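Human: We require from you a standard protein entry with sequence in single-letter code and fold as tokens, and nothing else.

Assistant:
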Amino acid sequence: MNNRLPEWFRQEIPDPSTRTTMQLLAKRKVHTVCRQAHCPNAGRCFKSGEMTFLILGDVCTRACLFCAVQKAPAQPSAPAVQEPQRIARLARELGLTYVVITSVTRDDLGDGGAGHFARTIRALRAIDKKVKVEALIPDFCGRNSALKTVVDSGPAVLAHNLETVRRLHSRLKPDASYARSLGVLRKIKSISPQQLTKSGLMLGLGEGQGDVIETMKDLRRVRCDILTLGQYLAPGRSYYPVRAFIGPQQFKAYQQRALELGFTKVLAGPLVRSSYQARQLYREALYA
């Protein structure tokens, strides 16, 4: 297919504050998924005081075909002991009131990094109890103990992305499992029924409308509260190619269907990413 971006992907040129924020992140030795995953919304989010921190290093132990984050065989480093405090201090310096924390997958660690997530969440809340934290976690190989560790640290929202539909999942995420990911969301609710949960899908990977609807129904069966739907954009030529560009009207139709299925809040559109407008989605879901 023609990979030229449709007109609805046009964005404003980032203002100088974006470069200043990038320089500050580098100086503080803090990673963000905004930068590591080449997010198209980085400038817009930085300007509105939104940021998604990437913890546990920048080397992933899995080999998903769509992801720009550095992968093994590069050796993942040990979790940085001071990382939770660095992130908490930076969040205070930037005046962030809602912080999203995510990570690479660390299958080399006994708890998958769950303890580091918990320490980061607690560090943020220790600096300012009013700060809300959303944790976007890997599957921790489905370990109940790891999930409980994160739940007990008190995130406002606990998210885990399916990323794609059942039919494509094993091809695009060969080291993961569709059933296990659904199980993660199910287990979170069994540990804490009131915990807000969230998941996200990328579209344009070759899925059909029926695939998307089936996946949304699967997510509702495990009582997932919040859903994001966005367009997949290949980070480079060596990654899985874009199979289709989904138009704004189709995203609108998917959003309406998801709300009919019972999701509390849904955000869908070509430029939507799993952490995009996370603060707004949380607030709207909380008072829905």
